[in-house]
Every structure is written in structure tokens, then in C-alpha cells.
Amino acid sequence: MANTGYKSFTLLERYYKDDDSSTGETKPNVVTDPDYIAPILDTTNCPPGARYYNTEQTKTIRKNSCSVGEIGTEVTLTAYVNQFVSDISVTDANNQAIAWLEENAQVYANNLGTCILNTPIISSGLSSDGMTINLSWIVPYDDVRITGYQLFRTNDLSSDNWTAYRSLNAPDVKSFSDNSLTPNTTYYYKVATRSAAGLSTSSNVTYQTTGNNSTGGSGGSGCFVEGTLITLPDGSKKAIEELHLDQLLLSAEIETLIDTNNASELYKWSSDSLLEKRITSPITKLTQKDAYKTIIVNDGLLEATPTHLQLIQRDDFWRFIALGDIQAGDNLYTINNEIIPVTSVAINLEKRRIFPLTLNPFHTYFANGILTHNYKEEENPNP
Q1: Domain range for 169
Q2: Looking at residue 256, what is its pLDDT?
Q3: Are 267 and 343 within one domain?
Q4: Which of 101, 258, 267, 342 could tie 330 with a disulfide, CB 3.0–4.6 Å?
Q5: What is the domain-level CATH number for residue 190?
Q6: Per-residue pLDDT tens for 111-168?
Q7: 150 and 191 in contact (C-beta within 8 Å)?
Q8: Domain-embedded: residue 302
Q9: What is the count of structural domains for the chain?
Q10: What is the pLDDT at residue 259?
Q11: Using one digit for the tens of pLDDT, what is the confidence trace for 232-256?
Q12: Mind listing the pLDDT tens digit for each residue in 86-100?
């Protein structure tokens, strides 16, 4: 061990007071002896060796003792400056700190971390012929324990009689296309994660109603109803039925989103933040038709067909879902950069005039002051 600069004494020797001569008696110098002499600083005879201290080191690790369907929060353990010392080098002191972190960080995280729900979020869309339901889902937080997913299906939501419909045994497979369907039938779906501990709490419920297969189906157009106010680049608003081809609309370019009319790509996108900049985009296609089922959000703030693609925030993540999957408690994004909650959702089965429109190259716009998307399924070429 390197010198510390202190001189210590192994033995105590007894001397006569009158002439300072030794009596010849010695004894060990131990701290329990009343005559114990503590080490004294003597840098002349005991020059101290070099001492090296660690710099701050940290290790961040996730709590791993949560139940299935939950994910632990991340916790950081810190080895503070000068917590470890070495007579070899700073690197050696740092290695001591790192070894200590490796040994203790997981226990520290399990004691101080918390568990949060990590249930999937599922959405769906209907193919243009009305006879394939395309499902996709996300899991808010990555979890290495997930080994796959269990998809459930039912035709009768009131009975809560769910069938374990498909087992997907790969954690990176987060979509499924169901074409084992009957025309003019409503199908409900939910999904749960699978791990060695079992199945998680199930996701939200999504549903679609198939079309009449003999006539080509009901199609999947997602469109707003007559009277919906669309925002123009100067901030003014015009009813959707008054718009015309090539008219510029106020649009928003969302950071991290590759804007597209590809529904499967849009369903895969999610973000825990929403950063956007305002741009303009022209209408390249505008038609009108009748719809016999629409979704009404917040007492008429939005009204569109169930397959209309809508931007929402759920469980702190922004993503696109079919309007038919929207729930009270979801959030919407306004033209004033505000986040407002969905407080009510209702289904209308009366006839409505709707106006499918397409923008290009950017596909977002503001309807009644809410940021939305122009995606709609391609129409059936053989009605």
C-alpha cells in the first residue's frame, strides 16, 4: 500500500522518567490500550504516495420487477466524484466506480422505480372492397420481455364473449389483416402482449363493419360532413362543400412524420411530442357522396365517417387512428396549438352528405380548427 504521509507505531517501549533510559519492557500499540499512540503526520520520513479519485460515473437502468403488462421506469444511480480512490490511476478509480454501479444499479432501480401500464393501442381500417379489416397496434414502451401478441375477436360486444383469434409469436409483428369475414357484419378486436409471465391487460377495442361483398362493399372513404369549416392559408374558413380543386388549404408538416396516403405507414407512426410548422397544400381531388354512418365527436366539433384518419394523443403518444376508434379521454390538436380532450363520442346512422378530398404533396389540414388528415382508402374500381 502506498504511503499516506502518516507515521504509525507498532510497539510501545517503556522508559524511566528520571533519565529517559529504557526499562526493556515493550507492548503492542493497539487502540484499546490506554497508552495507545495514534499515527502522526510525518511527510518528511513518510512521504505520501499519489492518490487518484474517480470522476462522476452513472448507470441508468429500468426497474425489471414489474408485473406482466407493466413496464418499469428508468432510474439513475450515481457514483459521485471522489467516492472511490486508487493509488494506481484515475482509470482504476473509475473502474471501481463502474464495478460498484454494475453490482448495485438494478437493486437500486427496483427499489426506487415505479411500474406503469404498457398495454397496446390498436386501430383498424377497412379495405376498399369492404371485406378485409387491416389491424395495427403499438406498444407505448419497448419491453424486451414481450415475445408476441394475442389478438381477440368478437361479433357481440355486449356479451363480452371474446375469441382468442390469432396468436402472433414475434414481438416485432404489430399488424394483421383479417379476411375471414362475413358481409354486412361488425367485428370487434382487441390485443394483448404475451411474455413468459402470460398475457397483459388487453388494449382498447376497435371495430369495423364489412360491406356487401356482392356489390363491392361499402368502401373505406374517410370524409367530413357538409358544413365542416376548413381553414385557408390566410386563417379564414370555408365550408367543405364550397371548396374547389386547386384551392390552397392551411396544412401542417409534422416533424418525424413522413406524410403519405399509405394507411399502414401512418398507423405505424407515433411520437411523444408534436412539433409542426404551418405550410400550404392544394386540393387535388374533391368529390361528394352520401354516408349512412358517421362519428360525432364533442357534440359536433368533428363529424366524419368511421374510417376517417384522425390525429389523436393517447397515453402521452400522438398517433393516427380511424375516427371510429376514438375514445373519450383522447386528445385533439387545435389550430391554436392547444391540446383539448375528447369528452363525448356518438354514432349517427342518418344520411349525411360527405366530401372526400385529397391534398398533395402534404395531406394534413384543419377541420373546424382541429388538425386532421385527408387519407381515405382507394375506391373500389369495380363497384
Answers
A1: 132-215
A2: 86
A3: yes
A4: 342
A5: 2.60.40.10
A6: 999 888 788 989 888 887 788 899 999 888 877 788 999 999 998 888 778 999 999 9
A7: yes
A8: yes
A9: 4
A10: 67
A11: 999 999 999 999 988 999 999 998 8
A12: 989 999 999 999 999
Task: Using pLDDT thresholds of 50, 70 and 90, give the confidence band for residue 4.
Answer: low
**180 and 137 together in one domain:** yes
- Do residue 108 and residue 166 come from a single domain? no
Amino acid at 298: N
Asked whether residue 121 is domain-assigned, the answer is: no
